């Protein structure tokens, strides 16, 4: 019976050693596979970083081109607006001159007095004009 017990203990010990060896080999294999996976992940991350850099550079270039075009368009529009404003100011001056020429003398004198007062007190004139505009706006809103 001792012989069977010794054999069983030897078998159990051998199995334990085999399991330990297999566990060591599995650990080694797992380490190798993890190392390879880490290397692959690093390579993929480097490629993704390079692509992101290229895309960011292209996007920056496009944004610069678009900003330049927008600036050019804004300059053109500002120039056109200035030209139109000058034309309209000239036409307004002409209309004012025609209106002044067709006014009776009493109205011309009153208008000259108002203009003189406005030049002497521009803030008062601006306040009165703003009040008239607000009053007119309120009247229009009620309709």
UniProtKB/TrEMBL annotation:
Region of interest (Disordered), residue spans: 1-24
Organism: Sphaerisporangium flaviroseum
Taxonomic superkingdom: Bacteria
Name of the molecule in the record: CsbD family protein
């Amino acid at each position: 019976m001792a012989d069977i017990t010794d054999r069983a203990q030897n078998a159990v010990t051998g199995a334990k050693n085999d399991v330990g060896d297999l566990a060591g080999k599995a650990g080694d294999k797992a380490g190798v596979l993890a190392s390879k996976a880490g290397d692959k992940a690093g390579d993929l991350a480097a490629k993704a970083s390079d692509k992101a850099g290229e895309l960011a550079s292209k996007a920056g270039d496009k944004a610069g081109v678009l900003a330049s075009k927008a600036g050019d368009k804004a300059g053109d529009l500002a120039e056109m607006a200035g030209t139109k404003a000058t034309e309209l100011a000239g036409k307004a001056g002409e209309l004012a001159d025609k209106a002044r020429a067709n006014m009776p003398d009493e109205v011309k004198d009153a208008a000259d007095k108002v203009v003189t007062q406005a030049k002497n007190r521009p803030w008062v004139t601006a306040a009165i004009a703003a009040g008239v505009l607000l009053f007119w706006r309120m009247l229009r809103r009620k309709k």
